[in-house]
Specification:
Blueprint (H helix, E strand, L loop, with lengths): L2 E6 L4 H12 L6 E8 L2 E8 L2 H7 L9 E7 L14 E2 L5 E9 L2 H10 L9 H16 L3 H11 L2 E9 L5 E7 L4 E5 L2 E5 L11 E4 L5 E5 L2 E5 L11 E2 L15 H7 L1 H9 L3 E2 L4 E2 L8 H6 L3 E5 L1 H18 L3 E5 H4 L11 E6 L5 H12 L3 E6 L5 H5 L2 E4 L12 H21 L4 H12 L1 H8 L3 H11 L4 E6 L4 H15 L2 E6 L16 E5 L6 H13 L3 E7 L11 E5 L7 H19 L18
Parallel strand pairs: 17-18, 17-19, 19-20, 20-21, 22-23, 22-24, 24-25, 25-26
Antiparallel strand pairs: 1-4, 1-10, 2-3, 2-4, 5-6, 6-7, 7-8, 8-12, 9-10, 9-11, 11-14, 12-13, 15-16
6-O-phosphono-alpha-D-glucopyranose binds next to α9.
């Protein structure tokens, strides 16, 4: 949510910043801007809209600055317009600041600053923030970093910021609390960014700044200090990310690429962990707390969005395999009530980005009450991976499309492996069943590959329903969370209203909506609730609803009653979500493309929600 980027080195900063902003655009795309030192001037260019609007605006200009900061915004305070776009300048024009996060006490600070003669051109908390720093700097005659340190001790909220100043044209200062910030160390050059994607083409040596640290980069050197001004020795991490992983590689959209990558991303997720032939499953990241998991009296899963749907599937899997009661919670709800958490409870936090503010806050709450937190995270080095006691990475590679696809199937795979391992060690499943599950899991990439072959048929179906105003998705058992996920995918990117429902619950409300204009997607694969779902299809048909059924290969019954059937390969019912979600991802993708929607950057959404 908001992407920030900064550069200090020997090259021209502007193209580096623009390229970096393009890479970060998935984090927010309401407006974009840059600040550069051109001679003695601190020049700001900012514009409502996407990065390309900003580029268009400055296409006639040449910028020579070797230092600069850039921002792509997802509006929190104030409408998305030119004035509210970042960077924000201080009243004197000496400081330019970019910010990802929210300053919660900005109202009081603003009033105070107004009394001290400051004026504001925007509605943002960020403009208050930069003037607050300036006020401390001038009134106490401090260096930029010292003024920043004092300011940060007085602001409440979350931030990742970068600042440049006219007074110190070769100094780049950055700090974080709550929102992510990575520093790239190149040869005689430094980068700062919200994540590693703008950095990776320049250097793979990075430092993930910790909460309340301030980094100062100047004259080819850098230093990192904590909130008490004590120098820190940072851990320099070597990134393994390939540039190709963050490019579209011939696909029209990142979402298309990521949907079709799933046979590989699921295999990557199992690589080195699962050996079906030998009957081995190793999860190195969950070693110290493996016993605690097996002996847990209950598991609480916390997540948001698509990750929450993965958690719902995991609930069924853990309860079935491990016989441990599971509760699945929206992180945002969990943290604002007074949840009962006992020492030794296991909390599994699921997050693609590893930065979701509500999930992070829920983790802190759970930890404070003595729970053990296991993170199931995709982004290496992210905040959630660092605050969790232990965890397992997805290894799905960067996911850039805002609508999550490959992260969902990787989350299911990792959660399944965690449950399987715990169940085997605990003795709630016998060795032959354990081995059978491993074998079936190892076949999933090939089955997903086959499910992707439904693409052409789904494109045809999409064409028929692209103008529908509502969709209903029904599923039961393991496929119920898939129905929720299918509906979420459709509304996120095509803006068609869609609801996911447990198939049997349809009778308690949604059935009233069904008529000949209502497409109903029913996930009706062969499993223990198949017969019941068949009855639900009949109920929809009796009310003239249009049924698009996802069925198991070779089903001869449902094609006789549904309007459209899409076949997916058979697998164990607990693994079916990995396969049955594929046609639903494709359906939402094609409908969104046909409606002319921006698939990768749907309106109002952001990939990484770093505000609460
Ligand atoms: C946003 C994204 C979703 C994602 C959710 C949770 O809403 O658009 O795709 O599922 O955040 O994000 P996380 O990174 O924690 O999985």
């Amino acid at each position: 949510m908001c992407g920030i980027v900064g550069y200090l080195g020997k090259k021209e900063a502007y193209p580096i910043l623009i390229n970096g902003l393009r890479r970060l655009e998935y984090r927010g795309y309401d407006s974009a801007g840059v600040a550069l030192m051109e001679g003695d001037d601190l020049v700001v260019r900012k514009k409502e809209g996407k990065v390309k609007e900003l580029e268009g605006m400055s296409s006639e200009e040449t910028f020579k600055s070797i230092i600069g900061i850039g921002h792509t915004r997802w509006a929190t305070h104030g409408a998305p317009n030119d004035a509210n776009a970042h960077p924000h300048l201080s009243n004197s024009g000496n400081l330019a600041l970019i910010h990802n996060g929210i300053i919660e006490n900005y109202g009081a600070l603003k009033e105070d600053l107004k009394h001290r003669g400051y004026s504001f051109k925007s509605d943002t908390d960020t403009e208050v923030f930069v003037n607050f720093i300036e006020d401390i700097k001038t009134s106490e005659n401090l260096s930029l970093e010292d003024a920043l340190r004092v300011a940060l001790s007085k602001v409440v909220g979350a931030y990742a910021i970068a600042i440049i100043s006219k007074e110190n044209p070769n100094k780049l200062v950055a700090a974080r609390k709550g929102s992510p910030l990575v520093i790239g160390l190149g040869k005689d050059e430094f980068f700062v960014a919200s994540d590693a994607t703008p950095i990776i083409e320049h250097t793979n040596e990075v430092i993930y700044l910790k909460d309340e640290e301030i980094a100062v980069m100047e004259n080819g050197e850098y230093s990192i200090k904590d909130a008490k001004d004590i120098p820190q020795t940072p851990y320099i991490q070597t990134l393994e990310m390939e540039l190709e992983a963050i490019e579209k590689s011939g696909h029209d959209h990142f979402m298309h690429k990521e949907i079709f990558e799933q046979p590989i991303s699921i295999a990557d997720c199992m690589r080195g962990r699962l050996n079906a032939e030998k009957g081995e499953l190793t999860l190195g990241g969950i070693r110290n707390y493996a016993k605690a998991l097996e002996n847990a009296e209950r598991i609480i899963i916390i997540a948001c969005g698509t990750s929450w749907h993965a958690g719902l599937v995991a609930e069924y899997v853990f309860e079935d395999l491990c016989r441990i009661p599971v509760e699945v919670e929206y992180a945002s709800e969990f943290r604002y009530r007074n949840p009962v958490i006992k020492e030794g409870d296991i909390v599994i936090a699921i997050s693609q980005s590893g930065e979701t503010a509500d999930t992070l806050a829920a983790i802190e709450l759970a930890k404070s009450k003595g729970a053990i937190v296991l993170g199931v995270v995709n982004t290496v080095g992210s905040s959630i991976s660092r605050v969790s006691h232990e965890g397992a990475y997805l290894h799905a590679g960067p996911e850039i499309g805002v609508a999550s696809t490959k992260a969902f199937t990787a989350q299911l795979t990792v959660l399944y492996m965690i449950a399987l391992k715990a169940a085997f060690n605990k003795g709630t499943i016998a060795e032959n069943r354990f081995r059978e599950h491993l074998r079936e899991l190892s076949l999933i990439p090939a089955k997903v590959e086959k499910a992707l072959k439904t693409n052409d048929k789904i494109e045809e179906i999409s064409d028929l329903f692209k103008n529908a105003s509502n969709f209903l998705y029904l599923g039961r058992g393991y496929n119920f969370p898939v129905a929720l996920e299918g509906a979420l995918k459709l509304k996120e990117i095509s803006y068609i209203h869609a609801e996911g429902y447990p198939a049997a619950e349809m009778k308690h409300g949604p059935i009233a909506l069904i008529d000949e204009n209502m497409p109903v997607v029913v996930i009706a694969t062969r499993d223990s609730s198949y017969d019941k779902v068949v009855s639900n299809i009949q109920e929809v048909k009796a009310r003239k609803g249009v049924v698009i059924a996802i069925v198991t290969e070779g089903d001869s019954l449902i094609p006789g009653m549904a309007d459209f059937t899409i076949e997916v390969p058979a697998t164990h019912e607990s693994l079916m979500p990995l396969v049955s979600v594929i046609p639903l991802q494709l359906l939402s993708y094609h409908i969104a493309v046909m409606r002319g929607a921006n698939v990768d950057q749907p309106r109002n959404l952001a990939k990484s929600v770093t505000v609460e």
